[in-house]
Design brief:
about 170 residues, mainly alpha
Length: about 170
């Protein structure tokens, strides 16, 4: 069944039935609850802080020491789906990169997939920042990420530095 069929069926329902179905979805599915909570009360700063905690949890879990980038990536994808501003999305993406750099500086070299993930996230952040005229807002922070990678191998700093200068010079 596609969206067209769903819309057709929903058009047959009266307002009371629609409210009942939406209420059921709200109670049963956390992403639906989050969507409507943000829709009704769009406190983007608060939402951004909540998602930063989720991103951090993937790198530095409250219990244990295991890196779980999937948790951090999922948080970013869920945040995107809520329709937040480009500035908040860029902030969250840079936060992911900052945590990746901190993790590496704290625990030593990781594998190639890890660096590729952090690099692509940095690239995405800079593209969003540049496309939306936010370069001045994030310049110091974006450069600090590059300087914080000074002791990291695998050509990581070189790549991030190239990305930085692609957008800032």
């Amino acid at each position: 069944m596609g969206l067209r069929e769903v819309k057709s069926e929903l058009n047959k329902l009266d307002k009371k039935e629609l409210i009942k179905h939406i209420s059921e979805l709200y109670k049963k599915y956390k992403p639906v609850k989050e969507y409507f909570d943000f829709y009704i009360n769009p406190d983007e700063k608060k939402l951004l802080e909540q998602y930063k905690e989720k991103v951090k949890e993937g790198f530095f879990p409250k219990r244990g020491f295991q890196l779980k980038l999937s948790i951090s990536r999922k948080a970013i994808n869920d945040f995107k789906k809520l329709g937040t501003s480009a500035e908040s999305l860029a902030d969250l993406l840079l936060y992911f990169v900052e945590n990746g750099v901190e993790f590496t500086n704290k625990y030593g070299d990781i594998d190639e997939n890890f660096y590729t993930s952090v690099e692509s996230t940095y690239s995405n952040a800079l593209e969003i920042i540049d496309k939306n005229g936010l370069l001045d807002n994030f310049k110091k922070r974006a450069y600090k990420i590059v300087t914080d990678t000074d002791e990291i191998g695998w050509g990581f700093q070189d790549y991030l530095e190239d990305l930085y200068y692609l957008h800032y010079e």
